[in-house]
Amino acid sequence: SYAEAANNLATLLRMNGDGEQALVFYQQALALKPDYAEAYSNFGALLQEVGRVGDALQSYRRAVELQPTHPEWVFNYGCGLLEAGSFDDAQAVFHQLIQLAPQDARAWDGLCNAQLHQKQFESAITNGHKAIEFDPTNADAWFHLGVAYQSIKNSDKAIELYQKVLELDAGHDSAQYFLAILGAVEVPDKSPTDYVKDLFDGYAETFDNALVNNLEYRTPTLLFEWVERYIGETEKNLDIMDLGCGTGLIGPLFRNIAARLLGVDLSPKMVEKARERNVYDELFVDDLVPPLQDNKGALDLVLAADVFVYLGDLDDVFAATVESLRAEGLFLFSTEKSESSDRYELRESGRYAHAVPYVESLAKSHGFSVLSNDDVVLRKDGGRDINGSIYALRLN
User: Could you give the number of structural domains in the chain?
Assistant: First the structure.
């Protein structure tokens, strides 16, 4: 039928990275055949990829309403709920899938993953074991089980499970990274791109509330106070780049001193949220370095709030920032503060902390003068203050 042809074409386009055309053909398929469950589920997956989480969930839900006993549609809906941060609903849907397909390892793994997010570690362990029993080749299931054991501080078991993940999938960066956090392999010079992207894609819906209200996150405000200290009254139209902009918490503060406000983040979902604020002139889904290189000598101020916790080695970012700044340009950023290493350390939290002498020597070697380096409390974690530094550098 025409509807099936449109659905198949849309799926091909989606696999080839042409999301916009794919959207058109999925909509066509559904217009031709309004009860087409498979097209709804596929359409949901595409909407999720482009960050339209609410629309994606509606589409997934419709597929399940049309064919409630089709395991694939139920699985996709569960994954969508996981990604949206609706963990109670996700658990309910994976339970539904277990009723339909008791030996589907993905159902048990999905349940385990949802329970991890809700800190239900014992249940997560039980269900994670089921997942690897039903499919011993599912690397993600071994990984989630490892995270569950790591969460209850059983490091030896977690290490054993992460090593198993790497046997199944040598390119599983998150398993490699968690082994480094547990001290079983050498510390990498940055967090894996996929780890950071997935972490923040998963946070996007709940991020602002959690960070600002629950963790008393103050970095954007602190950075703004520092900038006001260093720029005169006259310098009110600055070209500004917000590195690791997340949901754009920095944007509203800096908008009124910006001629151009640019933001970059690895997480498409976070960038989508930042876009909704309508304060940025341009937003990029990318690593930190490329947008800096694309703005050679075009910026007055580069900001990085709570971003370098996912980078150990800061050399490349410093080099790219130097290229992007005009003479006398400012570079303001926060780091968690390491007292125990001479460069940087990877903490149990999965975040890097940097030693002051390392940052200051890096600044010097790249031609910055350090205007200030202040000790601050960046946020709370498990009720404890996380101590950090806010640096203000000026390009000589």
Answer: 2
